[in-house]
Amino acid sequence: MAAEGTEELSNTEELKNPPGFHEPEAAGFTKPDVEQSGETGGDGENAAPYTAHGDEEEADLPADFEKLWKQTCENPLDFNSWTDLLQYCEQEGHLRACRQALNGFLVRFPLCYGYWKKYSDIERRAGHNTKAEEVCERGLKVIPLSVDLWIHFINLLLGTLNMNLPESAHRIRCVFEEAVASAGWDFHSDRLWDLYGEWEKEQGNLKAMTAVYDRVLMIPTQLYNTHYEKLKTHLTSNPPRDTLSPEEYDMVKAEYKQSQIQTKKEKSDIAADEEERPPGEEEPADNDKDSEEAVQKMQELILARREELYQHNEAEVRKRWNFEEAIKRPYFHVKPLDKAQLKAWHSYLDWEMAEAESAAMNAGGTSVEGGEGSKKEYVASHGRVLVLFERCLIACALYEEFWKKYVHYLEPYGVEEVRNVYRRACGIHLPYKHSIHLQWSAFEEKHGNVSEAQRILESMEMVLPGLSVVRLRRVGLERRAGRLDVAESLLKESVEQSKNNPSLHAFYSIKLSRFLLKLCRNPARARTVLQEAIEISPDNSRLYQNLLELEVSGDLRANGGGVQQCVAKALAAPLSPKTKIRFSQRGLQFAEDFGTSVQSVLSMYEEHQKLLKEHDGKRGAENGDNDDPEKMSKMDDGSAMAVPPQTAPPTMPHMPITTPPPPMMGGDASGSYGSYGSWYQQYGGYGSYQNPWNQYNQYYPPS
Questions:
Q1: Among 131, 197, 282, 469, which one has the highest count of C-beta atoms within 10 angstroms of its own C-beta?
Q2: Measured at the alpha carbon of residue 40, what is the angle toward residues 34 and 46, in degrees to the nearest 5?
């Protein structure tokens, strides 16, 4: 399907599996049958010979290499810089330079399995067969799902080991077993299974060849039909005694004999085994040879036993065929995937997880006697989900949404499995994605590993210094761990380091002030923090709002004048007229509710009226002619500061209505306390005041 016709692609890659990932939970992603060329290499027939230039470890590096190496070090995530360096090394044929470049590249892009093959070929051409094997083993530890790398490793061993030695065949067979355990469950693993079966045939071990094809017969792969045809040819071309295990051969032979007895019974009603024999005479021996008729009948029984497995496997393949066809780029590349490809992976994963969930329900609802098959199907379904996730995280390794999806699926299965996924995602592929690092830290904290959670956040700050969301998560972690002194020091450090950024400085100052007030029970220090921040950012209204909240929430008997002082400071600050009106309104409301003298209320009211007049005057000047129809309509609907008719005051939502005192005798009606009721009805009092903490998240700088 998708793997076919992609031979021209380069940079086909594999994703490493968690440690201990094994069959049936593991399988790998088979890459397209790619011939490496250009940057991705291969056996490199036209490549320059690799020489050690004297002592290979001490040889001087070429000047051009040093220049290209410096460029990659300055921007280690620039894929093109690395490929330029690697292409130069391949052309130059300098062994030490090649080693240094490939080691540096594969640390950052370990999914590029083609470069592991290149590295192995370089060592082999230099005459270092042992090092070539070590390179393959290193690559397979990182990406054990790579069918191509397994095949490359096996071919390397076949070309370098002395196959006349019995231990060589044993080692090859062990490597084959490791390969199919790691990558044999992949939809495109057909080449690996075929290579294994053909190798066993070359060794003359026909029974082992049968076992290989029997195993792949139960795995949905792209070339499932080809495997079955090869198995049928193999079984019908050789005697059953040579192709079957002793246990199966005895079982099939017994079944054949039983069928023969049944046939004779149907014909003559006399069983062959019931014929009288002299005492002590045994059944005639078959001299370890089956008749031609027996062989033919036994082969029919053998194929009939496998036909049912084949039909079941074919049904599983059909279910997945359309999903597989929708995947157009199954290999890793730094270029982004289009939305259609991302959607295809999501759809495939969701379907496979639904299948596993259904199998789990069937396994859980079956009886002990009859549930063995359902339990095996559940294990297989779970393994297929893991295989698909690992395949997906090859093509989508740079998309944290798939890593998070994988984590969510694995959470019910164990902590260590989830931890391994986080390590791979954050340690290799997503070092600059703070979101998944924060999620990993929360996971570790949730499971009691506080020290690891701290390490994750500290490492994230080293990679992305100054990211406020990470710093606040560190503060929260220390606070939850009971280390308030450490949390406070982190906030203080942030306040000091952000003095050159007024907005960020105000944000951290508010956080520190709240911390001191709510947790340390120290309003004096909290007040000092906000006042110092106001000196740096006198035009930041949120600082005044939080200072006002602090004063209002404090003990008014101990510091009753703090609110009015805060309001006065806000009115004198370079804030917008609307903001000043809100502060004045709040101060007037506070004087009404808690003022110790009527004179304080009147003074606040006079100041408030002045602000309103100034604001209306500026607004009128900006709007132009007072006879503007739109402005007049606003006045008609009560939006202007007109004295309302002497009717019952409108009821404000969640707002206690107070009755204003009568107007003062002899005073100016326009400025008297009596008109305070009009202002109160017009502006809604305390009910219209916005809680400043509702918008604290706007202080987060863009990441």
A1: 197
A2: 95
